Amino acid sequence: GPYPGGITVFWGDVGLSSRPRDVRRGWHRLALDGLDVRIVPGNHVTLLREPLVAHLAAELTRCIDAAEVR
User: Fold this and answer.
1) Model's pTM, two decimal places?
2) DSSP-assigned letter for residue 65
3) Would you state the pLDDT for residue 18?
4) How far is CA 27 from its chain centroid?
5) How far is the CA of 15 from the CAs of 9, 11, 20, 42, in angstroms?
6) Helix (H/G/I), strand (E/B), else coil: 19
7) Which of 34, 43, 56, 70 lies in disulfide reach of 12, CB 3.0 to 4.6 Å?
8) pLDDT tens for each residue of 3-54
9) With contact defined as beta carbons under 8 Å apart, do 13 and 41 qualify?
10) Of 6, 13, 5, whose CA–CA distance to 44 is shortest?
11) Residue 15 DSSP SS3
12) What HEC string does 20-57 produce?
């Protein structure tokens, strides 16, 4: 069911430009307080591996830092 807060989704950028689709992919219906989509280098698997995981970690750190300011 829907989540009462906001949701942040991280998507790999591989294939996004060649397949114009809604990057929200239905998540916006579950996030009652908004959806934040972050695009990072890689695909579903490679964004979790070196060296691309560093980009994911940096983006995740920015999200955590912003949440702590609120």
Assistant:
1) 0.79
2) H
3) 58
4) 11
5) 16, 10, 9, 9
6) coil
7) 43
8) 999 999 999 998 776 555 666 778 888 999 999 999 999 999 999 999 999 9
9) yes
10) 13
11) coil
12) CCCCCCCHHHCECCCEEEEEECCCCCHHHCCCCHHHHH
